[in-house]
Specification:
Number of domains: 2
Order of helices and strands: HHEHEHHEHEHHEHHHH
Bound molecules: adenosine-5'-triphosphate, magnesium ion
Strand content: 5-15%
Number of strands: 5
Structural class: alpha/beta
Number of helices: 12
Distance between the termini: 29 Å
Largest sheet: 5 strands, parallel
Length: about 270
């Protein structure tokens, strides 16, 4: 019953599901450029920072990066629980690298060091992606740059990519974090979306599940863009609610009236 709107619009699956494949992600030129720049940075064994407001698509950019980096040349380690203390953080890194459990920071560096040397012999570059990095504890941040020193700081031990909300950039600029910040040579921010981005995004996601024409009127689109701002997560949620509501009313497309009703009940639920 709840998925009836799909058959009403002739869609083969939930257009805005999170389970979209890495190769099917929406890649407008701006995101394409970002993924290419990150890929180049990883090939150069450099480290990077990626920031953006909630829901703008940071984690999806990482997924596109994962798709772009060939497993034969890169060992990707993804850490999404940055809230843990320093010890657990190191443990996570070791487990993800497939190393034996180590208890002290000293042991960790020795273990990671020799592991990275082994990988280098096989021409494999480790990439450590820390998502939600604005949540990292200060004592973890204090030590993170040491991972980027290798062979007397001539070569990085691995590529580090820190991903988080814009306040991560502010935090890294603090004097205390300058050793780490200065080693993040590539700094990217996902900016705000313009209305054309929102319509392009909707069209791409709907086309992927079989839509052959626009399902949102121009008016409805601009309202949706204004309400969701740059959060694609909000766009997903509002667009899904609008499609359901339009289907219930047997409408062929989502128009202004349907969207205002959705936004009205949204603002009542989240005043
Ligand atoms: N390139 C994309 N292609 C398809 N869908 C996307 C893309 N980027 C974002 N989305 C959609 O928007 C949702 C939110 O994106 P994502 O989780 O990447 O945001 P985020 O910036 O990591 O947010 P947060 O800061 O809350 O972690 C995704 O679940 C997905 O549905
Ligand atoms: Mg995310």
């Amino acid at each position: 019953m709840s998925l009836d709107y799909l058959s009403h619009f002739g869609l083969s699956a939930d257009p805005f599901g999170k389970d979209i494949g890495d190769a099917e992600l929406w890649m407008p030129p701006s995101k394409h450029f970002l993924v290419e720049s990150l890929t180049d940075a990883m090939h150069a064994r450099a480290s990077a920072l990626l920031t953006g407001e909630p829901g703008v698509g940071k984690t999806c950019v990482l997924r596109a990066l994962r798709h772009a980096l060939t497993p034969a040349n890169f060992r990707l380690v993804y850490c999404q629980n940055a809230t843990v203390g320093r010890r657990d953080f190191y443990r996570h890194l070791c487990i993800a690298l497939g190393l034996a459990k180590v208890t002290t920071a000293g042991d960790l560096f020795l273990a990671v060091n020799s592991h990275v040397e082994d990988l280098a012999k096989e021409r494999v570059c480790p990439v450590f992606l820390v998502d939600e990095a604005h949540l990292l504890h200060q004592d973890t941040l204090d030590h993170l740059h040491i991972l980027l020193n290798y062979q007397w700081d001539q070569k990085p031990l691995l590529s580090l990519v820190l991903i988080g909300l814009p306040e991560l950039d502010d935090r890294l600029r603090l004097r205390r974090n300058r050793s780490l910040y200065s080693r993040l040579h590539h700094r990217f921010a996902i900016g705000t979306l313009v209305p054309d981005d929102t319509s392009d995004y909707l069209r791409a996601r709907l086309a992927r599940v079989g839509a052959t024409k626009d399902l949102f009127s121009v008016d409805a689109l601009s309202m949706l863009h204004e309400a969701a701002g740059s959060s694609l997560r909000d766009t997903d949620r509002i667009a899904t609610a609008a499609l359901r509501s339009a289907a219930l009313r047997k409408k062929k497309i989502v128009e202004r009236d349907v969207l205002s009703r959705i936004l009205q009940s949204d603002s009542e639920a989240h005043p």
